[in-house]
Amino acid sequence: MDIKSMTLDELTQVVVEKGYPKFRAKQIYDWCHVKLCGSVEEMSNLPKDMKQWLKDEFVSLEVLERLESKVDGTNKFVFRLADGNIIESVFMPYKHGNSVCISSQAGCRMGCRFCASTLMGLDRNLLPSEMLDQIYTISRITGERVSNVVVMGTGEPLDNYDNLIRFIKLLTNEDGLHISQRNITVSSCGIVPNIYQLADEKLAITFAVSLHAPNDEKRKALMPIANRYSLKELMDSCKYYFETTGRRITFEYSLVSGENDTKEDAKELIQLLSGFPCHVNLIPVNPIKERSFRRSDQDSVQKFKALLEKNAVNVTVRRGMGKDIDAACGQLRKKFIDDKKS
User: Fold this and answer.
1) Annotated catalytic residue 10
2) Gap between the Cα atoms of 123 and 89, Å rounded
């Protein structure tokens, strides 16, 4: 395991086994997770022979491209991993603090029909260090403190379960950045067994489920995962999550014109969520050229929202960020890879 994916106890054990004093582990850990160094050479208080060893165990990202929105200050980053794979991340400045949306996989195998992230399939899972380093690198480059982290970029976080949990524990550890679990959001398309497993972790994170349809038939047309797990199975796992953690779930609902944005769809959604403490986040879909889906118009969005509110469903419409720089999931990564191929 690379050093940035290790806990302090694990790193201490390795350092001692290598014949170095125990205190060196805390120095290395501080350089990685507090000072957010970009290379081993920056670790100025370590001996040369130790630095030489650490070079082979130190994960860092290469910045290939950075785009900054002239509209709202959103920054989109394209990173290259050590093995050449490409990922992307988004920095979003808000009045209440800065958020970073990170990728959990290089690519995605979930196949959601409206999402650019899945068009080229899955290359591999990201290591905890590679998830952390998206945040650390963006903090270094922007000079801004990150207070909120959203695992909602390229990839399905629960398809990379063990690395995700280790990433959360490292990010929230008091010896590192110590970001509150309550300031971390994890989004999933709904891998039911892993939702039960996540509930049993009893984390204080915000958990978001990509719902996107009010019934099985429409959900299957948009999300292949619905062929494996029915809405009833998904809702049962969500109710278990709430009962186990006490944390309200957010349901993400991408509005696609003529597909899932009608009055009847809203009524079905109200019935599905009736009596369940939750929040609905309406997202006018970001069109991608490979699909014929169109964004719901503003009138349809507001009517859908109003009907949910009238029936006591807690709902908001997500504010679009970085529209002028392809900031939606997977768009910039795919464009970058396509450009390189051509």
Assistant:
1) no
2) 17
**What DSSP line would sit under 111-174, residue for residue?**
--TT-GGGTT-EEEEPPHHHHHHHHHHHHHHH---EEEEEE-SSS-GGGGHHHHHHHHHHHH-T
Out of 32, 37, 88, 112, the active site residue is 88
At 160, is the pLDDT very low, low, confident or very high (cuts 50, 70, 90)? very high
pLDDT at 308 over 60: yes
From 177, 174, 186, select the one nearest 245 (Cα to Cα): 186
Structure tokens at 33: 């997770």
Helices (H), 209-330: 216-222, 231-245, 263-273, 298-310
Write down the catalytic residue from 37, 112, 115, 329. 329
Close Cβ partners of 83 (under 8 Å, ≥ 6 residues apart): none
pTM for this prediction: 0.93
Q: Is the pLDDT of residue 286 over 80?
A: no
Write the CB contacts of 26 (distance below 8 Å, at least 6 apart in sequence): 8, 12, 175
Q: Do the beta carbons of residue 74 and residue 327 sit within 8 Å?
A: yes
CB 205 within 8 A of CB 182: yes
Q: Which of 61, 153, 71, 65 lies closest to 107 in space, CA to CA?
A: 153
Distance between CA atoms of 328 and 342, rounded to whole angstroms?
22
Summarised one tens digit per residue, pLDDT across range 64-116 is 999 999 988 999 999 999 999 999 999 999 988 999 999 999 999 999 888 87
The residues near 92 (Cβ < 8 Å, ≥ 6 apart) are: 72, 74, 98, 99, 100, 101, 321, 322
DSSP category for residue 19: T
**192-245, pLDDT tens digit by residue?**
999 999 999 999 999 999 999 999 999 999 999 999 999 999 999 999 999 999
Q: Which of 306, 11, 152 is nearest to 1 (CA)?
A: 11
Q: Is 2 exposed, middle or buried (0-12, 13-18, 19+ CB in 10 A)?
A: middle
Establish whether 329 is a catalytic residue: yes
